[in-house]
Amino acid sequence: MRIISGIKKGFIIKGPPTVRIENLKPMPDKVRESIFNILGGWIEEKQVLDLYAGTGAVGLEALSRGAVSVEFVENNKKTSILIKENLEKLGFTERVYQEDAHLFVNHTGEAFDLIFITPPHKEIDFKVVEAAGKKLKPQGIIVLESDSRTEVPLFENLKQFDQRIYGRLKITFLQSK
Length: 177
Fold this sequence. Notes:
Number of helices: 5
Structural class: alpha/beta
CATH topology: Rossmann fold
Shape: globular
Oligomer: single chain
Number of strands: 7
Number of domains: 1
């Protein structure tokens, strides 16, 4: 895994050790690149939340492309440490929370311009998506990763503006109403 573009372009992101970390499945570089191509320069100076952060690759890419801040939320201790190592290696000093995504979005008082929701499992907890939608700033965006067969429901406070399928992955773009 590598940083695809921006000020840290080409930097290698430390992945899991040869021993597999349970439920860690990093987003393929090509999918990450496509997402950031869709977002374009909009990401500059934005506050970002990376839920189910895994290795931190998505949030690190956002920082490299000009996001003003990224908060990483990862429930797994080993992967939280991995994110901190990647941040340190790249010279970033962002916050990493070892916490359940649903608990975090329900208690944070912060609002974000962009929220990535990339759970490592097939089943999506749409309550997390709904709660995250309430933490978006006006015109804020949620990028949701799911299995390509998962039907993404309509949300009261969010409108879908794009959806892409990459093999078994579906990426849905939602915006605050």
